[in-house]
Protein 1
Amino acid sequence: MITDLGYKIIARHNNSLTPKAGVRLLLALAGIVLVVGISFARIGAWLVLPFAGLEILAFAYAFHYIYLHSSDFESITIGNDSVVVEKRDYKEVTTTVFQRHWAQVSLREVASVGGVIGRNGLFIRSHGKEIEFGKHYMNDEQRALLARELKQKLKNID
């Protein structure tokens, strides 16, 4: 008898920029923008300064948005009797549970809108519920590889 002790896969963004490094980069960009803006203001083009300020605000907002979403992820956990798909988007966490015996994995073409990376979507479904996995975190090749692996894991039922 083969006992399956579980399986978990987590998909997330590559967060190579730490918050501290992000602040440093933002300060460096703001410094460059201010030097250029003040230089133009000194030669008489003072209207450049308000736009330089708006540019700094836009950079600050972008870095803040990246920081807020740095811990977003999607995960699939396969236990003895269940398949749990968990998604975190900023503060919102959704959990969908499927019965392992009835869960089906499919890979099919989707329209390329809404941040989809690639053309294929990886779907898990059972009893009228369906959820897409890896929409923002994986490319087509990774989805195909994961679909094969998930199908194999779902076949190995005690």
Protein 2
Amino acid sequence: MTLQDFFDSVSANPALFAVFLLAVPALAFVVNMWSGEKAEEIWRWRFVYATLVYLACIPGIFAFTLNVYLFLFERQSIWRMNLVTQVLPVLTMVATLMLIKRKLPFAYIPGFGKLSGFMTLIAALIGILWFVDRLRIYAVTYIPFTYILVGFVGLLLLVRFAWSKLF
């Protein structure tokens, strides 16, 4: 099964995927109501919040990355967007993160720092690849590939360092 086959099957029967994506922020809302008001009560629910963050962010990050790829590299028209597979995961991610942030700061959610680092790395990688694609540097240079690879990794490390200092 290819990725296109998977998206075709989800598009043919979007109800199950849409219910899953709508259930995640609904669960976050319910957990917010159940977790209490005191810090000790909320602290007990941190792993449930971490699970909800990952359930929302993995499809959301994938959909966002796919959208960026389709619009920058494939030049897909915005009119051809699939709302269930391209928009709903991002909206689910945003809604879930907003609901969770009301109750518990992200610093207290186990593994959230790794997830934000992963998002930063993906954003930097796509930005650099788009820049290289537009320059067409690979077609006009006689620089050895190892130098380009070392520069690419160095640029990723620089972006990661700058992002950590920024936030």
